[in-house]
Specification:
Layout (H helix, E strand, L loop, with lengths): L3 H22 L5 E3 L5 E3 H14 L6 E3 L6 H4 L4 E9 L1 H5 L6 E8 L2 E9 L4 E6 L5 E2 L2 E2 L4 H6 L3 E5 L6 H6 L3 E5 L3 H7 L5 E4 L5 H13 L3 E4 L17 E4 L10
Parallel strand pairs: 3-4, 10-11
Antiparallel strand pairs: 1-2, 4-5, 5-6, 6-7, 7-8, 8-9, 12-14, 13-14
Helix pairs in contact: 1-2, 7-8
């Protein structure tokens, strides 16, 4: 096993430098459309560069949304970094605040360390396999009562399809949030459930998956299986995350 304390500090250093870049480029970003029809901007590229340069000192391969490692390479790796240097490109381009930086360390297809940077709020959520979840320099400390109050509040996506019938059948109240900050809403007891229906990529989800489970929640696909973060095309199935295991819906 790698020295996770050292790697977590390295990821924090990378996340902090990326946050500086994103704040710097917010008013001078240029956007273009990639071959897969998704948007990318100068800020994405700059953030990716600084994260990759810092993580390179770990001698662990890096797979990023902006520089994807081929499956032929990944399938033989015990470890690799999985990063999204700017999650929420559309929000960022509109000068919204709902964007973040995502860094995860994958070991045998599952995350064992991760970081979510809520850039606009200067908030860093992180953990590795042998720690609890931290927010900035302190343990995340939310009462069970706070989680209980939001167990029927679910997160809608602003930019992806939502299954309205699912919300109605389960009598869920919805909140619309952009990007992987949905996972922060679960961690902070601002919502209790995050269902995602189709379309996510591994780099969008891995960091949040790890932090939710490490914080006593649960995340699985609709067949009740853990997600695999080393699939051939890095696509993931629909999934559902709960802030706490004990607040699952009756069908899960």
């Amino acid at each position: 096993m790698k020295n996770l304390d050292t790697l977590l500090q390295l990821s924090l250093k990378a996340g902090k430098e990326a946050a500086k870049i994103l704040l710097e480029y917010k008013n001078k970003n240029e956007i273009w459309i990639k071959d897969d029809s998704s948007p990318v901007g100068l800020a994405d590229i700059k953030s990716n560069k600084v994260i990759s340069e810092i993580l390179a000192s770990s001698d662990i391969a890096i797979c990023s949304e902006e520089n994807i490692l081929s499956y032929e390479t990944r399938q033989n790796l015990e470890y690799f970094w999985l990063i999204d240097p700017l999650d929420g490109t559309k929000s960022y381009a509109k000068n919204d605040k709902e964007y973040c930086v995502l860094i995860a360390l994958i070991h045998k297809n599952r995350p064992i360390l991760s970081l979510i940077v809520d850039v606009e709020n200067d908030a860093y959520y992180y953990a590795h396999a042998h720690t609890k979840v931290y927010k900035n320099d302190n343990l995340l400390n939310i009462s069970n009562e706070a989680y209980e109050k939001v167990q029927n509040i679910a997160l809608y996506s602003k930019n992806h399809d939502n299954n309205e019938e699912f919300f109605i059948q389960n009598k869920l109240e919805g909140i619309k949030v952009s990007s992987a900050l949905k996972f922060v809403y679960l961690l902070e007891a601002k919502a209790g459930i995050y269902p995602r229906f189709g379309g996510p990529k591994a780099w969008d989800i891995a960091a949040g998956d790890f932090l939710i489970i490490q914080n006593g929640g649960i995340m699985q696909d609709f067949d009740k299986k853990l997600l695999d973060y080393n699939t051939k095309d890095l696509s993931l199935p629909s999934f559902i995350a709960f802030a706490k295991k004990e607040y699952k819906l009756k069908d899960f």
